[in-house]
Design brief:
alpha/beta; Rossmann fold; 6 strands; about 30% helix
């Protein structure tokens, strides 16, 4: 059987001065820091000797921009897969909060009644199904080598929990999926045999200097 690794990467920091939940809204691009994060991950993969033959991203601009440096570094064409798109969310385009945000308006409250599905957006199960399908397509395309897929926080986290056989409902504060992080799935044939998480741009994350004391 061929050993293949599929890396699921979250996009870099997005320019979002209005602090809204941008979701699937087109036109949201990386900030300057986000571009730096994307380059950092590409450099990290090259320095680590990654054998990447496939680079594919969500159709959203921030994911496409994040994937571009890696595609260039490995000399492969950047592909697009709709299945890697951000999760659908009722609160898209709105500020989400209790004060001046959407939660102060009663018309939004019915969307919060079921956190297990969840009631405010695309069901977790559907996210797992499409993300796993995208991962296995990339595994087949890169058989015996490595693939890099750039997606978004929640779909990446759902894909991981699905592969680990864990319940899909979770506390969002506990997601291990920082900006520009890479969750790597190692397959022997079509069987998952390993999972590894890295943060190549950890020192670039907002607040990193305060955390490290530097």
């Amino acid at each position: 059987m061929s050993v293949t690794t599929v890396h699921l990467m979250r996009h870099g920091e997005v320019f979002n001065p209005d602090k809204i939940l941008y979701g699937r809204i087109p036109g949201y691009h990386l900030s300057e820091l986000g571009h730096q994060m994307a380059r950092r991950v590409a450099e990290h993969l090259v320095a680590g000797g990654a054998d990447i033959t496939v680079v594919t991203a969500s159709p959203l601009q921030r994911a496409q921009e994040t994937a571009t440096p890696a595609a260039a570094a490995f000399g492969v064409e950047l592909g697009t897969d709709e299945r890697l798109i951000e999760a659908g969310n009722h609160f898209e385009g709105k500020s989400f909060g209790v004060g001046d945000g959407s939660l102060r308006h009663p018309e939004h409250w019915p969307y919060l009644i079921n956190p297990f599905r969840p009631s405010w957006g695309e069901p977790y199960k559907e996210q797992v199904e499409r993300m796993h399908a995208a991962v296995h397509t990339a595994r087949e395309q890169a058989e015996g080598h490595e693939a890099l897929l750039v997606s978004h926080q929640l779909p990446v986290w759902m894909a991981r929990r699905g592969f680990e056989g864990k319940r899909l409902w979770h506390d969002p504060r506990n997601r291990q999926c920082s900006l520009a992080s890479v969750t790597s799935f190692r397959f022997d044939g079509d069987a998952l045999v390993g999972l590894h998480y890295t943060e190549p741009a950890a020192d670039l994350l907002p607040g990193a200097s305060q955390v490290s004391g530097a």
